[in-house]
Amino acid sequence: MVRIAILATHPIQYQAPLYRALAARDDVAIKLFFCWDFGVKETRDPGFGKTIRWDVPLLEGYDHEFVPNVSKRPGTDHFFGLVNPGAFARMSTFRPDVIIVHGYAHATEHDVMVRAHRKGIPVLLRGESNLLAERPAHIALAKRLALPPIFRRLGGALAIGTLSAQYFEHYGVPKERVFLAPYSVDNSFFQSQADTVREEARAFRKELGIPENDLVVNYAAKLIPVKGCADLIRAFAARPRPNAHLVLVGDGPLRGELESLAKSLSARVHFVGFVNQKRMPAAYALGDVFALPSRFEPWGLAVNEAMNLGLPIIASDQVGAVPDLVGPDNGWVFPAGSVAALTRVLDEALAHHDARVSRGKASLRRIAAWDIPQTAEGFVRAARAASSRS
Question: What is the average pLDDT value for the chain, to the nearest integer?
């Protein structure tokens, strides 16, 4: 049996099902060490611009503890937002064969990686980074100098998808030490509700004043500049579509500005605001096509979620999930930032019922192989390989 200690920033609704799946296996023992209690209690999320608390169980079904965070300003948005001096000592008491670290953007993660290397405990790194974004020259240079020495010390890397694997290999992780652990959501949670949420989705439409047979393009993400929401509103407004609506699920600092933009363009746009996890299946189900027009998106788990509800996908070429999850069979891909291209894609998607139906079915087929069990297996396969080399 391989003993795996996992360092995570905070409990995350997408990751809890993975931890439960790992804990249920009889070939590994796991324990989570969290650096922050965001999401467990009501906490302000600057991206959503409001205080939130998730309405799904985040801590059930697996062993875990919270390591005291001494940061003066706790958070994941800056390097010293997670400062947990006792993290490695607490993880050591678990006697791990392998340590898995989620990301390297905070002080604690670097501290744990350095201490584990000194003690001869292999570290597997999981992260969302890819090479899509063009970085300023000084940042690109800093990465070229700083990352290879860090990555070469790793026992391996857990890639969330194709672009993630390329990133790790680019910065020095040997190809044979890069293991696919798909970035997944709990498919069963969404698909088990696919039929029952249809009625809730109809009620959702009624709340928004959308006739049952009208077409809906939906979007689910924070309302922040990098998500490309303004591009989506402009593209949607560029063509008169009397029976079509754009529904934006999410909140954030741009909401007022985006509402003004939609009003100035006389676009039929509905701002739903923040929706908690239990109602998200219905939020997707009210749509006919899902759009994620991000200017930059390391992955985009909303794509996974929408695919589980059988929706065809519109995504920009800067969405990290695209190479693995979106193709001509189940969606449309356009150049990020091009309102004209997005307008053409929306035209095609909304004009052809049969194409939407066939691509929605293809979404369900594609996402079946991108699920929690496959992610758990990737974790275990990587842990076995790393521990056998130590």
Answer: 94
| pLDDT (average), residues 340-348 | 97
pLDDT in tens, 16-71: 999 999 999 999 999 999 999 988 866 555 555 556 566 778 999 999 999 999 99
* Over residues 158-182, mean pLDDT: 97
Contact 379, 158 (CB under 8 A): yes
- Residues 171-178: what's their mean pLDDT? 96
From CA 371, how far away is CA 362, in angstroms rounded?
15
Question: CA angle, corner 84, sides to 78 and 87, nearest 5?
Answer: 130
State the SS3 of the chain.
Answer: CEEEEEEECCCCCCCHHHHHHHHCCCCEEEEEEECCCECCECEEECCCCEEECCCCCCCCCCCEEECCCCCCCCCCCCHHHCCCCCHHHHHHCCCCCEEEEECCCCHHHHHHHHHHHHHCCCEEEECCCCCCCCCCHHHHHHHHHHHHHHHHCCCEEEECCHHHHHHHHHCCCCHHHEEECCCCCCHHHHHCCCCCHHHHHHHHHHHHCCCCCCEEEEEECCCCHHHCHHHHHHHHHCCCCCCEEEEEEECCCCHHHHHHHHHHCCCCEEEEECCCHHHHHHHHHCCCEEEECCCCECCCHHHHHHHHCCCCEEEECCECCHHHHCCCCCEEEECCCCHHHHHHHHHHHHHCHHHHHHHHHHHHHHHCCCCHHHHHHHHHHHHHHHHHHC
CA neighbor of 291 nearest in space, from 271, 319, 266, 270? 319
| Amino acid at residue number 349 | A
